[in-house]
């Protein structure tokens, strides 16, 4: 899950990148949490967008972990690996671009330290207008490439059961990278790798 403890474990495994999901809370901080509600991953209930940052910090996200602000994850990672930020919540493009700019301008980070993705191509387009230097990826549940090409995405991030060898080949011909999500079973990981994908998202990076 999206906690500082899980990101620290990823660092220890020396993975190529981490993926995290962001939403805006009521007081407009960018917080790192998968769902638009806190019910499944914390001991609280309700929508992230209806809670202040202070209210969110009172919740237990497991083993005493707190819902982190995006900047806290940046400070933990310290440019050791690439950060793939998925824009889950509405209106996240602009504040995320502003936070990234602060780290690039003020803390010596590079635009290449970041990759931004989303199911919402409107958010992606908005982000790309603000930060054209950063690569974007279209997240989708089906093997569709037209929209990814249209918005000039760097990659198409596809649910693993929609990926096959022909799809990967076609994507590569269109100069799109293919990242498969979320592949946790060892047999599935082996199969997906055989298709020539460019990357795999997994909850168990040690299996890769």
Describe the structure.
This protein is an alpha/beta fold and 208 residues long. It has eight helices and eight strands, in the order αββααβαβαβαβαβαβ. The protein has an eight-stranded mixed β-sheet with strand order 2-1-3-4-5-6-7-8. The longest helix has 15 residues, at 93-107.
Key terms:
8 helices, alpha/beta, globular, 208 residues
Given helix and strand content, the structural type is alpha/beta
Shape: globular
**H and E string:** HEEHHEHEHEHEHEHE
Cα-atom radius of gyration: 17 Å
Mean pLDDT: 96
Number of extended strands = 8
Stretches with pLDDT under 50, minimum 5 residues? none
Cα(first) to Cα(last) distance is 18 Å
Strand order of the largest sheet: 2-1-3-4-5-6-7-8
Count, helices: 8
SS strand fraction: 15-25%
- Major sheet details: 8 strands, mixed
Helical percentage: 25-40%
Please write out the topology.
Elements: H1 4-12, E1 17-24, E2 30-32, H2 53-57, H3 70-77, E3 82-87, H4 93-107, E4 114-118, H5 121-130, E5 136-140, H6 146-150, E6 155-159, H7 165-173, E7 177-181, H8 186-194, E8 199-200
Parallel strand pairs: 1-3, 3-4, 4-5, 5-6, 6-7, 7-8
Antiparallel strand pairs: 1-2
Helix pairs in contact: 1-3, 4-5
Short description:
By secondary structure, the protein is α/β, with parallel strands linked by helices.
């Amino acid at each position: 899950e999206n906690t500082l403890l899980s990101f620290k474990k990823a660092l220890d495994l020396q993975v190529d990148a981490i993926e995290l999901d962001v939403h805006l809370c009521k007081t407009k901080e960018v917080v790192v949490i998968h769902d638009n509600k806190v019910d499944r991953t914390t001991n609280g209930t309700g929508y992230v967008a209806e809670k202040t940052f202070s209210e969110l910090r009172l919740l237990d996200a497991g083993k005493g972990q707190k819902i982190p602000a995006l900047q806290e994850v940046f400070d933990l990672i310290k440019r050791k690996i690439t950060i793939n930020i998925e824009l889950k919540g509405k209106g996240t493009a602009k504040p995320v671009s502003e936070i990234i700019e602060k780290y690039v301008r003020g803390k010596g980070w590079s635009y290449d330290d970041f990759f931004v993705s989303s199911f919402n191509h409107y958010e992606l387009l908005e982000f790309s207008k603000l930060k054209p230097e950063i690569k974007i990826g279209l997240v989708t549940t089906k093997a569709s490439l037209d929209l990814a090409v249209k918005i000039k995405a760097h990659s198409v991030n596809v649910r693993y059961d929609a990926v096959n060898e022909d799809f990967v080949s076609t994507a590569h011909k269109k100069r799109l990278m293919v990242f498969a999500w979320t592949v946790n079973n060892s047999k599935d990981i082996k199969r997906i790798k055989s298709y020539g994908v460019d990357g795999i998202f997994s909850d168990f990076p040690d299996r890769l």
